Amino acid sequence: MRDDIKQRILGAVLAGGRARRFGGDKALALLHGRPLIEHAAEALARHAAAIVICGRTHEPYPGLADRPGTDMGPLAGLNAALHHAAEEGFEAVLTTGCDMPVLPDALAQALIGEGAAIVEGQYLLGYWPSALAPKLDAHLRENSDRSVRAWLAAVGPRQVAASPLPNINTPEDLERLENES
């Protein structure tokens, strides 16, 4: 990643979910002896000047409270990241879920570009101009459907095709990835 591009990007790990299917705190579940949230943060760090954790705290990264409040799903974490990015002078936010420990360099480069972009089938892995912060505020305030799909319909991001990426939703997913790598 070119340094001039990297300096304009905030990396944000969306980590405020309840992990119902996982049965516990999957952000802290260990993969190769380290929490998943750390793998996700390190994957973003290759492409962003700074990293934040949305929806919780996890040292050494700054934590952002979901905005406008908790229990609103991943869009509240994205909203917090967009506002933080705008306030700190970042042009955009590169996001991933805490359960996505891998971000290939070529995929990150394909996401970063003109306007919002997501990976097909992996809606939390995306690139969001910080100028979208007021639009997401309005969406969360005025729309009872706070799903990521509703937000995608409102924004119309580019969709980037990618080979399947590891996404840890169950203990079995984690065990499978641990054994494969």
Folded structure, characterized:
There is one protein chain. The protein is an alpha/beta fold and 181 residues long. It has a single domain (3-180), classed as Alpha-Beta Complex (Spore Coat Polysaccharide Biosynthesis Protein SpsA, Chain A). 35% of the residues lie in helices and 20% in strands. The chain is built from 7 helices and 9 strands; from the N terminus they run αβββαββαβαββααβα. Helix 3 (74-88) packs antiparallel against helix 5.
Describe this structure in a few short sentences:
This protein is an alpha/beta fold.
Determine the mean pLDDT.
92
| CATH fold assignment | Spore Coat Polysaccharide Biosynthesis Protein SpsA, Chain A
Cα-based radius of gyration, to the nearest Å: 15 Å
Order of helices and strands: HEEEHEEHEHEEHHEH
Q: What's the oligomerization state? A: single chain
- Low confidence ranges: none
Bin the strand percentage. 15-25%
Strand order of the largest sheet: 5-4-1-6-8-7-9
Main beta sheet, described? 7 strands, mixed
CATH superfamily: Spore Coat Polysaccharide Biosynthesis Protein SpsA, Chain A
- The CATH architecture term is Alpha-Beta Complex
Helix content: 25-40%
The CATH class name reads Alpha Beta
